[in-house]
Recover the amino acids of this structure.
């Protein structure tokens, strides 16, 4: 008697386990397919490139450093906060258009001057409130999912 009950329990367990496993597997396949389709539409590399183009377009294709009079032939999009933050990575607000001198080359460049952001605030290129809001968004936890990439792409499109 005891053995039958035991066998019955094991049988039910195995059955529900199998059903759960199969449904989980099918869900995984479906989710995987959706993610792959979205990623096919927009890759990280492509989105970063579009972000850069949008940053430069929004700035009117000029260096945004205050009173920049450097003669430059190219512009660089710069992340005001590292692109390692998912919320900054494709965020137009996190970008600024700079000439090579003000991006990386000069002593006053974004990559060399620790007071770079303070200069932007002091000269009115960006405001203190702008950076407060940007930092808030920077600190928000966000996974870099396909859905997130698509959302960011939709926001960038207006400037492309
Ligand atoms: Zn410049």
């Amino acid at each position: 008697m005891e053995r039958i009950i035991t066998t019955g329990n094991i049988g039910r367990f195995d059955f529900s386990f199998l059903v759960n496993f199969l449904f989980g597997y099918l869900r995984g396949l479906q989710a995987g397919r959706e993610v792959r389709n979205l990623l096919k539409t927009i890759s990280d590399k492509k989105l970063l490139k579009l972000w850069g183009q949008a940053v430069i377009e929004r700035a009117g294709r000029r260096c945004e450093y205050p009173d920049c009079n450097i003669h430059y032939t190219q512009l660089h999009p710069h992340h005001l906060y590292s692109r390692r933050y998912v919320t900054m990575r494709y965020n137009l607000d996190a970008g600024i258009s700079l000439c090579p001198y003000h991006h990386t080359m000069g002593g006053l460049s974004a990559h060399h001057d620790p007071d770079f952001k303070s200069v932007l605030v002091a000269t009115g290129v960006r405001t203190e409130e702008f950076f407060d809001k940007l930092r808030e968004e920077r600190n928000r936890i966000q996974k870099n999912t396909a859905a997130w990439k698509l959302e960011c792409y939709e926001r960038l499109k207006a400037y492309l």
